[in-house]
Amino acid sequence: MTTPYRPRGSWQARIGLLLLLLSPMLQASQTLTVAWSHWPPFSQINNRGELDGLDVSLTRQILTQAGFVPKFRELPWARALHLVEHDQLDVAMAALPLPERQSYARFSTPYRQSAYVLLSNDPIPGHQDRWAQLDNLPALCNEKGLKIGKLRGTRPMHQMDSCPALKMATEYNADERMIDLLLALRLDGIIMEWQYARYRLAQLGAEEFISCQLLLHHQPVSLMFAKNSVSEEQILKVNEAIYALPKPHNKFSPPRCRLNADPGAADLLTRTLRKH
């Protein structure tokens, strides 16, 4: 019987070729840890006991499309920022590309818009409505003695520095705490992401007693990556996945507010405050 000729080393070559073909698949299986916290309707445990919400769904879709496997880890927002900065966490959702974060993080292109608003209680019957006399943005910004709260680390209005009433807002670590203080009449107003406020107020049966005084602006938010977790080339893939997302549903539109801090209002504010 004649033994078939097999070139020496052919099996090594085949394994090398197989590894070469599989290398993109191996890269595609890179796992990224993603921080989440209870912030409905963006991230929450649903009635089936599963992690769900708009940010969670979008992040899963974006990262999977970009070739990653997301692994979600429950963390408070401030802790998540700290861990990203120290390369102990890969991704934080719904982040702002603030200058101080650029040194330690990479940011995707924005994947959704977040509407920030200034909410207040409706006036108590028989009492004067303090907000009624603040019929324009400069008047509101120059009003003294307003007790306003905002979430720590957020900058929901580009012209905050030119608006003393908002710049002096007390910072809190949790949105729920601010809502509790507002309903207890210990705060005059709270600056908050509208969709979360809407969700929580509906839970408490308090949405009929709350007014939107000011639409601050639509704020684009991004995925924030620890710099050592992803490369610039991988960020490009993430951005491509974001560009392919469908348009957001109308239910995430901002509310009707008494005042609107649109770009024209911002220009008016700047011009007015220069005269004071």
Automatic annotation (TrEMBL):
The entry's keywords: Signal
Record-linked Pfam families: SBP_bac_3 (PF00497)
Signal peptide: 1-28
All residue ranges annotated as the Solute-binding protein family 3/N-terminal domain in the record: 35-122
Protein family: Belongs to the bacterial solute-binding protein 3 family.
PANTHER family: ABC TRANSPORTER SUBSTRATE-BINDING PROTEIN, MEMBRANE-BOUND LYTIC MUREIN TRANSGLYCOSYLASE F
The protein, known as: ABC transporter substrate-binding protein
Organism: Aeromonas veronii
